[in-house]
Amino acid sequence: MSFFYNASGKNNEFEINMVNIESSYAQDSSGLSINDTQNSSYGSEFKHPPGVLAIYIIAYSTAFLFALFGNLVVIVVVLKYKWMHTVTNFFIVNLAIADILVAIFCVPITLLTHIFIEWRYGAVMCKVTPYLQAVSVCASVNTLAAIAVDRYLAICYTFNYKMKWKTSKCIMFAIWIFSLIISIPMALFYQRYVQSGSLLYVCGENWENKFLEKIYFVGICICCYAVPLVLIIICYSLIGFRVWNRNAPGVYKSNGVIHKSKVKAVKMLTVVVVLFLFSWLPLYIIKFLIYFQMDEYDNLDFVRLLNNYIVPIAQWLGLSNSGINPIIYCLFSRKIRIRIKMMVKCCRYRFYDDNAAHEINKQTKRFSSTRYFSVDYTNGQVVLRPHKHRKSGSKKQTNIYD
Fold this sequence. Notes:
It is a multi-pass membrane protein. Belongs to the G-protein coupled receptor 1 family. Keywords: Cell membrane, Disulfide bond, G-protein coupled receptor, Glycoprotein, Membrane, Receptor, Transducer, Transmembrane, Transmembrane helix. Strand 1 (about 190-195) and strand 2 (about 200-205) form a beta hairpin. The chain starts with about 35 loop residues before the first helix and ends in a 15-residue tail after the last strand. A two-stranded antiparallel sheet has the order 1-2. A two-stranded antiparallel ribbon has the order 3-4. It has two domains: about 20-340, Rhodopsin 7-helix transmembrane proteins (Rhopdopsin 7-helix transmembrane proteins, Up-down Bundle); about 355-385, no CATH class. It has helices at about 35-40, 50-80, 85-105, 105-115, 120-155, 165-180, 185-190, 210-245, 255-290, 300-330, 335-350, 355-365, and strands spanning about 190-195, 200-205, 370-380, 380-385. The protein is mainly alpha-helical.
C-alpha cells in the first residue's frame, strides 16, 4: 500500500493479482517471474536497461537535492533571523522538516526499487522504511493544509485573529502524532520473504484480509490527500476572493498597491494549489485503479508499461512536491531571496577575505570618538561610516508568504 514501492507482476503463469502490483519492492519489472527476469538482457540484478536507469537516477537525485537542501535553507533563514520568528513561519519550518524526511526516507529507497530486483536491506528496514515514508508524507501534506488555514484566518480576519504559540505547537504536535498513528499498519503488514519459485528476497505487504487493506487505503486517501486538498482549495479560494475584494481591511492603500497585491496573491495561491494537486493526483489515481479496477486487466504490455514507466513517473511527481515548496517561497518572497543572498555572500567573504576583520579593527581606531558607526563591505573594501545617533533597526515580524 505504500506509495513508493515498485509495481510488479506475480507469477509466470500470468495469474497477476493487480491489487498487489505495487506491494512488492523487488519483483520483476515486466510482470513476469523473477526467474525470467534473471535471464533478461539487463542482467540478473537490474530491472531496466542503462538508459532508463540513468534517467531515473538523474530525476530522483534532482528531487532529492532540491528537497533536502532547499528545505534546509528555509529552516536556516527562519531560525537565523528573529524578526522571522512568527507562527506561520514555524509552520513552514515544520513543513520543511517533513519534506526533508520525505527526501531522506522516500527518494533513495524508491529509486533503488526501480534499479534492483532483490530487496537487499534486511527485515527491519523492510518494516521501518515504509513506516517512516508514510509518516513523513502524511505530516507534510497535513502541515501544508494547516498553513492554508492559518493564512486564511490571518488574512480574512486580520484584526480578530492571532494564533498563540501554544496553539501552534499543539497543532504541529497533533499532526505528527496523527501521522505516527495512522501509519502503524505499514510497519505491521510489511515483511521480507523469499519469493516462491526463486531464492531472492522481496519486501511487500501481506494483508490476510484484502477488504481491510482496501479500507485502509481509502482512509489514507481521505486523511492524507482528500481532506488536505479540500482545505487548501477552500482556504486559498476564500483568500483570493477576499484579496480581490476591496473591503479586505489593511490590504489596499492605493490603486497601484491594489493591482500589485491582486496579481501577486492570485499567482502564488494558484501555483500552490495546482502544484499540490498535480503532484499527488496521478499517484492516487494509479493506486485507486490498482485496488479497485485492475483485476479485470490481463494485458501483459499494459502491465509492463505501468510498472516500468507510469508508476516511477507518478512516484517522482509526488516526491518532487517536497522540493517545489522552497522554490515557491523564493519566487514569491523578496525577503527570503534577500536573506539567502546575504547568507551566500557572508560565506564567500569569510572564505576569501582573511584580512577583513583586521581592516575593520584598523578603521575603528579612526572613529574612537564616535559612539556609533556602520560597516559597509563592497567589492572587497571595508568602509566605516560614523553616525551621531543609533539608527533605528527594529524590524517588524513578517511571514515568508507576505
